[in-house]
Amino acid sequence: MKGQATPYLMFDGNAREALEFYKSIFGGELLNLQTYADAGYKDAPNANDRLIHAQFKKDDLFIMASDCFPGQSIVIGNNISLALDLESEEEIQKIYDALKERGKVHMELQDTFWGAKYAKVVDPYGVI
Fold it and tell me: What pTM did the predictor assign?
């Protein structure tokens, strides 16, 4: 396999909002935002608002995302999480504080037995 597996996040109509939230925390850029209408599904409900595909990139962090097809739904759960390897303790603290502001802390930020500073936070969109 070449490179790393790319996380692909599925949302129920709020993919753009979630990606903007991630951009506000990490910086980076949103790329290739396409709606269902752009892809030819012009008659689908909210086709101009729901994303069929989008990408988020910040340095080596790369995520793809979309909204589920209009009329379908998703089950938000613990089936995906993202492990972030950050550059400094300052950056760790800044991102942890921003995520926990609107999210839910499952494990407080702490030094661990394996030598890393680590936390587990569920963001407001259900992503760990």
Answer: 0.79
